[in-house]
Amino acid sequence: MAAATISSSLYDLLGIPATATGREIKAAYRSLARTCHPDVVAVTQRNKSATEFMEIHAAYSTLSDPQKRAIYDRDLFEHQRGRTRRYSSSMGLSVSPPLRSSGYGVRNWESDQCW
User: Fold this and answer.
1) CA 32 to centroid of chain Cα atoms
2) What are phi and psi for residue 80, nearest 5 degrees?
3) Cα–Cα distance, 38 to 47 (Å, whole number)
4) DSSP state of 101
5) pTM of whole model > 0.70?
6) Distances (CA, A) of 62 to 40, 44, 79
7) Residues 29/5, Cβ–Cβ less than 8 Å
8) Mean pLDDT for each consecutive 10-residue tract of the chain (115 residues)?
9) What are the angstrom distances between the C-alpha of 57 and each of 14, 18, 26, 109?
10) What is the CA radius of gyration of the chain?
């Protein structure tokens, strides 16, 4: 399964249902990583493969963390109820709802200080 550049959800990207367990999420990620990782594909497909792998890894990173997944699920529910917004993550993914729980682009008092 090749990862899509535009996906309706991170669950679709990994090819799993929204009710998937942590074990199912990990299994889907590992399966996709075996086929899309830049180290295992032909040299001519490495650039495309690297992009796909980064998308898959971002999805796994969000869905494998219970707190990030809860935030993502809430945002996905709001999106499906009609509050349509399109977001882009820091890696160029076009996924709705946002991947804001990944930690990139989030500022807080501690990270803004120069120690």
Assistant:
1) 13
2) -70, -20
3) 8
4) G
5) no
6) 24, 29, 17
7) no
8) 60 94 95 85 73 90 95 89 55 47 48 49
9) 9, 17, 11, 28
10) 15
Q: How many CA atoms lie within 13 A of 76 on its CB side?
A: 18
Give SS3 for 60: helix
Predicted confidence at residue 68, as pLDDT, reads 95
- First-to-last alpha carbon distance for the chain, in angstroms, is 46
Q: Are 86 and 96 in contact (CB under 8 A)?
A: yes
Among all chains, which residue has been given the structure tokens 């990207």?
A: 13
**CA–CA gap between residue 5 and residue 94 (Å, rounded):** 7
How many C-alpha atoms does 31 have within 13 Å on its Cβ side? 13
Which two three-digit tokens encode residue 49? Answer: 């493969």
Residue 31 CA to residue 93 CA, distance in Å, equals 20
Beta bridge partners of 94: 6, 88
SS3 (DSSP) at 65: coil
Residue 69 has which token pair? 């997944």
